[in-house]
Amino acid sequence: MTAPTPPVRDLVRALHSEELPAYVYDLTALREHLAGVREALPSSVELYYAAKANPEPEILTALRPYVDGYEVSSGGELRHVGKAVPGAPLAFGGPGKTPAEIDEALERGVERFHVESVYELRMLAELAARHAGDRRIAVLPRFNLPVGGGALDGSALAMGGRPTPFGVDPSQADEVVALLTDGSLPHLELRGIHAHLASGLEAPEQLAVAEAIVAWAVRLAAWHGFPLAEVTLGGGMAVDYADPGARFDWTAYGAGLARLAAAHPGLTLRIEPGRALTAYCGWYATEVLDVKRSHGAEFAVVRGGTHHLRTPATKGHDQPCTVLPSDEPWPHAWPRPVASGDRVTLAGQLCTPKDVLAREVPAPGLRAGDRVVFGVAGAYAWNISHHDFLMHPRPGFHFLV
Ligand SMILES: Cc1ncc(COP(=O)(O)O)c(C=O)c1O
């Protein structure tokens, strides 16, 4: 479902034109969704939320009862999440961690470090020797694993199994494990293995990837004789913008993870999704300013645009949307701009042809003043957008509890 929930619809209708565009989040819908996800997962599987998907404090707080912790990927996220949900366990990932960020993470007592390279491992060891005292820092090296069987073929955003700047190459696994187990880095503890190989995978592919990661990690641990306590399987559960009513099959995925966990007693499995947790609880609401024809095609220009909601531009899709026709009489003496055809392309206010939110939307009779509510806008939306381009006003933010 991408149509706005009744409370979102009511709020969007009630807002004054000048209060648009606005992001509206339905936190009740978010909590219901998370309860379902949690219910589908075995209780032994740890669920971390990848804060980069949507770090609004209200979202982070609403998620707290359902997640075991948060995955953060920068010093900024570390501070921000630490403030929004104080005391929640944090896993610190991301490539290119600076010494200052690592220092801060150590000082804040971050629970897990996802180490992305040998350089980073040595830097962490050096800084931990200065800051960690008697504490041993839990490390999960992130590996860029080759996953066979075509499991990553469906991914629009693969980060593993091919040349990328992410994680440690598997050819360096022996070196990394040796460093962590031969006593040369005494302040670090090899707690397990981390992998995040792709985004946008459906449950069967996610399970195939999970099985491959665990099998690889188990072999590595057996080869080196270290106790494998944890495997983090990453995020990347699919959100289908072209078929927004479809949902990632958490039930099938949870059942598969239960089988995997049962086959490896004593091993903690952890996942860290972002998009599939928060995408459906957010809407970007706006209003049609103008409707015009151009070379045989029809365009509606809406308040705002991809500088607020960059998701369709980055992913190359049409953002699902719902039109809420205006009840207001047209206040001007001249004719109201109205679409004459059935299909209208919804563009924003930026001076670039790339500022398109959705193409050829069925919207017969769309008029200036009608409201358009874009769904699936709760993840990688506002926070990945280029807000300052053209200096239009920022949207409003509303969190319906
Ligand atoms: C290391 C890591 N974990 C988790 C995620 C979350 O992925 P998604 O939002 O697709 O679930 C990302 C996204 O880039 C990531 O880089």
Describe what this molecule looks like in 3D.
With 401 residues, the chain is α/β, with parallel strands linked by helices. The protein has 2 domains: 89-273, Alanine racemase (TIM Barrel), CATH 3.20.20; 280-400, Lyase, Ornithine Decarboxylase, Chain A, domain 1 (Beta Barrel). 46% of the residues are buried. The two termini are 19 Å apart. The strands form 3 sheets. A 9-stranded parallel sheet has the order 8-6-5-4-3-2-12-11-9, with helices on one face. It is built from 11 helices and 19 strands. β5, α6 (118-131) and β6 (137-141) form a beta-alpha-beta unit. The structure holds pyridoxal-5'-phosphate. Pyridoxal-5'-phosphate is lined by residues 50, 53, 71, 93, 196, 199, 234-237, 272-276.
